[in-house]
Amino acid sequence: MNLINTYKAGQRYMKLCPTDKQLAHSFPEVKIINHIKTATKYLPPIVISLLVWQYYMPAPIAVTAITILFTLSLPLQGIFWLGKRALSPLPLNLVDCYNQLKGKLITKKVIAENGTEANTLTFESFMKIITLAKLHLGDYFGQDNDTSTL
């Protein structure tokens, strides 16, 4: 895999992945995306404080430069991890959930039955199905709506 393709897949996956608290318990992507967004929000003040620290404290310039480079690389590392996760194959325990959600979306005529899909299911395709299911089936798409037992 190419480094740039992995990074672009991470950016796509970050935009695609729903950020629900219900999914945060099952998928670490939600937490990683929140951390990346928080880091990009607070990185400029951190870098400025590191530069001020360099100015007022007699710290070696190499230590400050390495610290700043490491700080700036944290969101990039998160996006790269998301890209690796998006392109990795779906584990067998999630394939059944994927097929159930896809079946529900086919019965509601949201997606076509004969859609072209790759031989290996990836986390990116699973998140696409989850996003569609959340949009068309509601928040609790994984549960059956059987209220006759009440």
UniProtKB/TrEMBL annotation:
Bilayer disposition of the protein: Multi-pass membrane protein
UniProt main location, coarse: membrane
Keywords, sorted A to Z: Cell inner membrane, Cell membrane, Membrane, Transmembrane, Transmembrane helix
One Pfam family it belongs to: DUF412
Source domain of life: Bacteria
Record localization: Cell inner membrane
Transmembrane segments: 62-82
GO CC, one annotated term: plasma membrane
Family classification: Belongs to the UPF0208 family.
Name used for this protein in its record: UPF0208 membrane protein YfbV
Organism of derivation: Gilliamella bombicola
Lineage summary: Bacteria, Pseudomonadati, Pseudomonadota, Gammaproteobacteria, Orbales
